[in-house]
């Protein structure tokens, strides 16, 4: 019962740590998304303001052109028409302002969230047991004056990357372990 309680407590502690990491990462990513939203809205607001200014200038030019078209004095018409025509040409050349800088379809392409790898890792969480000890192949083991070679095999399903080999030197008085 004590052993079970200790393992259950460890499980709760580890899961709480994982959930805290996820909560913190969620907050960081949410802040990045909000910051990007604010930046894009600011940029769009600036573009809207530029478009409004362009629209106001165009409206003024159209009103001036309509007023000039009503002019009955031919000389005066030619004098003012050239000025208005130059201003219309300049406004037409600067009409690139009306093209939005932001593509709304991939406005958040920086935030492609793919948690498939993490989900697989979390789904694979399980209680691990220690691997079985290797079997020593005594027929292949050798010993010389200052060298010992130990051969073993492991028939465990676990992927064991290394084993620790301990040996004892009998000195006669006390055993020396290295």
TrEMBL record:
BP terms from Gene Ontology: protein localization to microtubule
UniProt keyword annotation of Transferase present: yes
Keywords annotated in UniProt: Coiled coil, Ligase, Transferase
Presence of the UniProt keyword Transferase in the record: yes
All residue ranges annotated as the COS domain in the record: 69-128
InterPro entries: Bbox_C, COS_domain, E3_ligase_FN3/SPRY, Ig-like_fold, Midline-1_COS
Recorded GO CC terms: microtubule
Any one GO MF annotation of this record: microtubule binding
Identification of the protein by name: TRIM1 ligase
Lineage, highest ranks first: Eukaryota, Metazoa, Chordata, Craniata, Vertebrata
Gene name per UniProt: Mid2
């Amino acid at each position: 019962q004590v052993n079970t309680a200790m393992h259950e407590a460890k499980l709760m502690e580890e899961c709480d740590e994982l959930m805290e990491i996820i909560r913190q990462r969620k907050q960081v990513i949410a802040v990045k998304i909000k910051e990007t939203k604010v930046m894009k809205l600011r940029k769009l607001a600036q573009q809207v303001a530029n478009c409004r200014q362009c629209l106001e200038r165009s409206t003024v030019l159209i009103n001036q052109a309509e007023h000039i078209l009503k002019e009955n004095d031919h000389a005066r018409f030619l004098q003012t028409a050239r000025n208005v025509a130059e201003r219309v040409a300049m406004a037409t050349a600067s009409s690139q302002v009306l093209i939005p800088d932001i593509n709304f379809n991939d406005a958040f392409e920086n935030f492609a969230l793919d948690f498939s790898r993490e989900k697989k890792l979390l789904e694979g969480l399980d209680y691990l047991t220690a691997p079985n000890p290797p079997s020593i192949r005594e027929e292949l083991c050798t010993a010389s004056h200052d060298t010992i070679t130990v051969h073993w095999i492991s028939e465990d399903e676990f992927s064991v990357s290394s084993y620790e080999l301990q040996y004892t030197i009998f000195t006669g008085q006390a055993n020396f372990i290295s």
